[in-house]
Design brief:
CATH topology of the largest domain: Neuraminidase
Order of helices and strands: EEEEEEEEEEEEEEEEEEEE
CATH superfamily of the largest domain: Kelch-type beta propeller
Shape: globular
CATH architecture of the largest domain: 6 Propeller
Structural class: mainly beta
Oligomer: single chain
């Protein structure tokens, strides 16, 4: 585990986890970091012992977390918001979104929209958003269990790879800021506040995995 101080830019090595794992999900809930799923980093197979481990930011110590109710071997995205029952939402290689309950380890699933290559996801004001490369930004209606398009968005240029995050109640792309409005019971629209290419020399085959917003300065 490595810890980066965003103010000073210094990187230091943190306490060693209980087990070494690869392709696991990482989610932050209050003052604890949850690491779960993945495969044994040594044997490259699903780890049969500890499925979840928790790092306490206050005590700087690791302890065992609630074991998952299902096997989650390969995970590549994760997002968490306390306003959604303190559950961690995870993207897996099977494209499904798994919901991990930190209280008892129970896992539920959300099925993405059919036939679309989905990218990153995040939660803004209790609504799940996911960017689909072939369609655009979509939001999930939990009661009807269906995905709908966020209308009204126009970007400057084409993005080969997308990562999104929540920022002060708005949705931030790496190269754009979106103001969302409407009702999750009816329809949601978006307005691009700004959209611009931040870096000039980016290879065409880049793959943007994730980014984090730091506002505590």
């Amino acid at each position: 585990m490595w810890i980066l101080d965003s103010r000073s830019g210094k990187l230091r090595q943190g306490p060693r986890p209980l087990v070494a794992c690869d392709q696991a999900a990482v989610g932050l809930v209050n003052d604890k970091i949850y690491v779960f799923g993945g495969i044994d980093d040594m044997n490259k197979r699903y780890y049969e012992g500890i499925h979840a481990q928790v790092f306490d930011l206050k005590t700087q110590t690791w302890h065992v977390g609630p074991n998952l109710s299902v096997k989650l071997a390969c995970l590549n995205r994760s997002v968490v918001t306390p306003s959604l029952g303190r559950k961690i939402y995870v993207r897996g290689t099977d494209r499904d979104v798994t919901i991990y309950d930190i209280k008892d380890g129970k896992c539920d699933k959300i099925i993405p929209a059919d036939d679309f290559s989905s990218g990153d996801m995040c939660v803004v004001d209790n609504v799940i958003y996911m960017y689909y490369h072939n369609v655009g930004l979509m939001w999930y209606e939990s009661k009807e269990k269906q995905w709908s398009v966020v209308h009204g968005l126009e970007f400057n240029g084409f993005f080969n790879s997308i990562a999104i995050a929540e920022y002060n109640g708005k949705l931030a792309f790496l190269c754009a800021m979106i103001d969302l409005y409407g009702s999750s019971k009816v329809a949601i629209r978006g307005r691009v506040e700004w959209s611009h290419r931040l870096l000039s020399d980016i290879p065409s085959n880049y793959n943007l995995k994730h980014f984090t917003i730091c506002t505590d300065y």
